[in-house]
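Exercise 3.2. Students should predict the tertiary structure of the chain below and write it as structure tokens, then compare their answer with the key that follows.

Predict this chain's 3D structure.
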Amino acid sequence: MRYLGMPAGMWVLYKKSFTNAMVTELGYSKSKSAEIMRNAKPKYIEIIDKLPEFEKVDQFKMNIVNCALFAAVLLNIDEKPSMEALTKFYATGIMNLPTKWFCRIRGKRKFSDADVQGLKNTAALRAADRNPYSWNMDFLAYEDGSGYEARFTKCGICQLMKEYGLFEYVPAMCHLDYTMSEAGGTSKFVREYTLASGGPYCDCGYKKKAASGSVAYDKENKKPVIKASICNGEMVAGFQDIHTGAFEEVQLVRNDDEIRDFMRHYGITEKIEKIY
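Answer key:
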């Protein structure tokens, strides 16, 4: 992989925030933190140079580049901090203002048709079959419509960190999934296993969050439904009385985006039943 391009950009993007995080989270002086980063850069370039180029459609290149940065820093720290301290350090170093903005933008697109299709395409790519520093995953939609799981069976970060004797520190990076999901604002991250902890896979689950400021409805007596016309297919979103079956019309919906807007407005996370 060439250093020029994304790897060089990532170094510029995170150099300052990583340096500051060494002070706030690891307790180093400003001068010592700057020294570690100066020494880490040649190692970072060396790690990048040894990596293969990623396929253009492989969306995980950024993940392995960030791993190379973290590894380069760790290799220049003589006495390794605790896992808790490293977890905080990595999260603070990565979550600077540009990354928070990126997470918010991604959060707005979470669960969209494009988001789901992109994950399905990534699952079909199986890039790790050709590149050991990439990932293989399966896309699993939750049956109740509350979100989805990306289940990883091969992990490029695990591969790279093993090669540099840093595998034990992978969990510090894994925890960032929770942080980035929270920053996105539209999903709750859930997980049971990680490959780094000896699990059979990494399950990255994303549950839909109710939109902040959403309008409440009578959940004890009503359920959200989409009423579709048998004649012309016209759809109306609204609420059905669970006791009488009476339908309360709220708005006309013409596509999936408008259905999602209705769900966000009322804080609906479960799959909506369609009635006729």
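Discussion points: The mean pLDDT is 93. Residues 6-26 form the longest helix (21 residues).
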